[in-house]
Amino acid sequence: MQARYGAKCAGHFQSLPFGEPLKIDDVTVTLHPAGHILGSAQVCLEYRGQRAVITGDYKTQADSTSQRFELVQCDLFVTEATFGLPVFQHPKPLDEIQQLLASIAAKTDRCHLIGAYALGKAQRVIKLLRESGYDAPIYLHGAQEKLCAYYASQGVHLGDLRKALDSVKDSFRGHVVIAPPSALRDRWSRRLPDPVVCNASGWMTIKQRAKQRGVELPLVISDHADWNELTETIIATGAQTIWVTHGREDALVHWCRQRGLNAEPLYLQGREEDSTE
Q: Where would I find the beta strands (DSSP E) of 110-233?
């Protein structure tokens, strides 16, 4: 899988494989896996012996639907902070899936409707179910179909997936249906038999948020680094200058400064809290 290099050259976008250097004037650019979703990349910029790494969204835990995060030593580290508060310490994803499987086994007369975003999260939840031994058909909202097919074309095997639109109501009983979070409470979900509403998101750590959204079974499964991953990665890069963006900047900046690092918030216009994760 190649990461997409976003600069236009001679009217065309170029593909830049992970780890392959690209010279732009005096700057060497390389892309490294970020572990967020399939193909997600960190950008490393090297200039006169100094190296800056911009992570974008990332996570360091293993995920068989994306390339594994690659640690890059650097002088300046620009990190996200979506879950940049100590309260966000995510459990093991397979433990969350075991809770889901236990609920499926106990409530065979209902279906389990999982809110999961179409790019990355839906495929990860499906793969975690398969890795846990769940081999029954999984039904998809139409918004999930093309991206699941793309992941399968890239070697991420997701098993028996079926279109929810093509099935009658009773066929969903005892099964899993995956849909965008926006579909959990709209007219689309009314075709389902007494669904157990689930949501796969790091934000499900906050039980009040789950309750407000009518989520019966919150699944704390995130594609972003939690507090421990953020702090461990910052130290491991060896960087002395840290810029923090996209999330809870203040707590992570404070943590860095307590350890003698030169840390600043990097506010990007138009980037607000991402409640989709």
A: 112-115, 138-140, 161-163, 176-179, 196-200, 217-219
Asked whether the predicted pLDDT for residue 7 surpasses 50, the reply is no
The CA angle 51-53-57, to the nearest 5 degrees, is 180
What token pair was written down for 271? 């980037």
Per the domain annotation, does 249 fall within a domain? Answer: yes
- Note whether 72 and 32 are within 8 A (CB): yes
CATH number of the domain where residue 193 is located: 3.40.50
User: Are 220 and 125 spatial neighbours (Cβ–Cβ below 8 Å)?
Assistant: no
DSSP 18: T
* CB atoms near residue 122 (< 10 Å): 29
**For range 90-95, the mean pLDDT:** 97
User: By three-state DSSP, how is residue 85 classified?
Assistant: coil
Q: What is the pTM of this model?
A: 0.90
Given the structure tokens 């998809």, which residue do they identify?
140
Q: Would you say residue 273 lies in a domain? A: no
Segment holding 47, helix H or strand E: strand 41-47
Q: Could you say which of 204, 219, 234 is where a domain stops? A: 219
Q: Whole-angstrom Cα distance, residue 250 to residue 63?
A: 29
**Structural domain includes residue 270:** no
- CB distance 202 to 228 below 8 Å: no
Domain range enclosing 8: 3-87+224-265
What is the tally of structural domains in the chain? 2
225-234 pLDDT per residue, tens: 999 999 999 9
